[in-house]
Design a protein that fits this description.
Length: 186
């Protein structure tokens, strides 16, 4: 039987606990889908930075009310295990959001009706898993497309609408409609 490894003394555990933990790069939760969401989060971090700076500058004994964080921010912090009262966490998230704003690929989807939040979350999750982990999605409405969607990227355009399918299959539809009366007469 192998001897049990000796447990580290309490002093060593305390030193290890005091060491800064190297954090992985943050990610965006699926609910943060659009460039507008990223912009809102950036504004919220800036407001929090200002409030904390004012707190440092004020004389002791004065109370300062910190801004309330939004649901979007709460989910982002929970998703990345960050604490906004820790300066390093705040700077890490702020830098990540700035990079996402500047460099993340953007796609625009047009639907005939406003998609549900659950559908949009599933779409963003799939896009981030299959296309790019930081893709941002903008949604627009085009009621004339019927069903399906139109997707635009920086250099590509894909029309997956029912309208376009009928246009592409027009001759087949015309042929079938011409055959139908002849078969009905038999």
């Amino acid at each position: 039987m192998a001897p049990k490894p000796a447990e580290k003394p309490a002093a060593h555990r305390a030193v290890a606990a005091a060491q800064p933990v190297r954090r992985k790069t943050p990610t965006l939760p699926p609910i943060v889908a659009s460039p507008t969401d990223v912009g809102r989060l950036m504004n919220e971090i800036n407001q929090l930075d200002e409030a904390l700076l004012q707190l440092k500058l004020r004389a002791g004994g004065e109370s300062v009310k910190l801004p309330k964080t939004s649901r979007l921010m709460d989910l982002t912090l929970e998703h990345n295990h960050l604490n906004m009262l820790v300066d390093a966490d705040r700077k890490l998230l702020k830098r990540f959001l700035e990079l996402a704003w500047e460099k993340a690929p953007r796609l625009h989807f047009s639907f005939s009706a406003d998609p549900s939040a659950a559908f949009l979350e599933k779409l963003v999750t799939w896009l981030r898993r299959e296309i790019h982990p930081h893709v941002l999605v903008t949604v627009g409405l085009q009621p004339g497309i019927g069903a399906g969607c139109i997707m635009r990227g920086p250099s590509k355009y894909f029309d997956f609408s029912l309208k376009q399918t009928f246009i592409n299959q027009r001759q087949l539809l015309v042929d079938r409609l011409a055959i139908a009366p002849a078969e009905a007469a038999k």
